[in-house]
Design goal:
By secondary structure, this protein is mainly α. The protein is about 60% helix and about 0% strand. About 0% of the residues are buried.
Length: about 100
């Protein structure tokens, strides 16, 4: 995890900057960081659910049959279904 510190002795052009760390800046930074955290969590959960055989058998039986018949072990091209891609896109867009 990244960390940082506040430097008080600044020279050069940085000394001309009059910006301050206010509560607004801290709040906006925390909200942005929370958004990134939630997006990463959502991405991990939906990616894991889509790889479950039970999920594929129940909602996308054609993709499950294609996966069972395929001997490919390439994780990037294992699902060739526009319906599954559309389902994933709707999950991400709905938040």
């Amino acid at each position: 995890m990244a960390g940082g510190l506040i430097v008080t002795n600044v020279g050069g052009r940085a000394a001309e900057y009059n910006g301050k760390v206010t509560w607004y800046v801290i709040l906006v930074s925390l909200i942005a960081a929370s958004g990134g955290l939630l997006f990463g969590y959502d991405l991990g959960v939906t990616g894991g659910v889509e790889s479950f055989p039970e999920f594929l058998n129940l909602f996308f039986p054609d993709v499950a049959a294609q996966k069972a018949a395929s001997a490919s072990v390439n994780p990037y091209c294992s699902y060739d279904s526009q319906k599954l891609s559309a389902f994933t896109s709707v999950l991400f867009l709905s938040g």
